Amino acid sequence: MHHTLNITANNEASVVERLLQVTRYRGYQLAGLQLTPLAEKAGLSITLTVSSDKPIHLLTSQLHKLYDVRDLQLASADIAALRA
After folding, report:
1. How far is CA 11 from CA 37, 49, 72, in A?
2. What angle separates helix 57-64 from helix 15-25, to the nearest 10 degrees?
3. DSSP state of 81
4. Rounded to an integer, what distance in angstroms lies between the CA atom of residue 10 and that of residue 16?
5. 19-51 per-position pLDDT tens digit
6. Is the pLDDT at 81 greater than 50, yes or no?
7. Neighbour count for residue 17 (Cβ, 10 Å)
8. For residue 8, which of 39, 51, 32 has the smallest C-alpha distance?
9. Mean pLDDT, the chain, integer
10. Is the pTM of this model over 0.85?
11. DSSP string, 1-70
């Protein structure tokens, strides 16, 4: 299942490395990454798309704990079809 996260973070040198490290440690595969600097130089908008069969809250709860993460929103998730 694919999940897309919209993250607002401080524009620090190590923030992307930390996001990817937590994503990998939690067993999620990177499916897409988009970085956009915000109008203010101290901010960064990150769109992170991950793939895994694990519940997404296992990843979002850890990303929320990162010091440089200001805001995290779950943008979308592919919904698995019900099997009869």
Report:
1. 8, 19, 15
2. 150
3. P
4. 10
5. 999 999 999 999 999 999 998 778 999 999 999
6. no
7. 10
8. 39
9. 87
10. no
11. -EEEEEEEEE--TTHHHHHHHHHHHTTPEEEEEEEEE-SSTTEEEEEEEEE-SS-THHHHHHHHTSTTEE
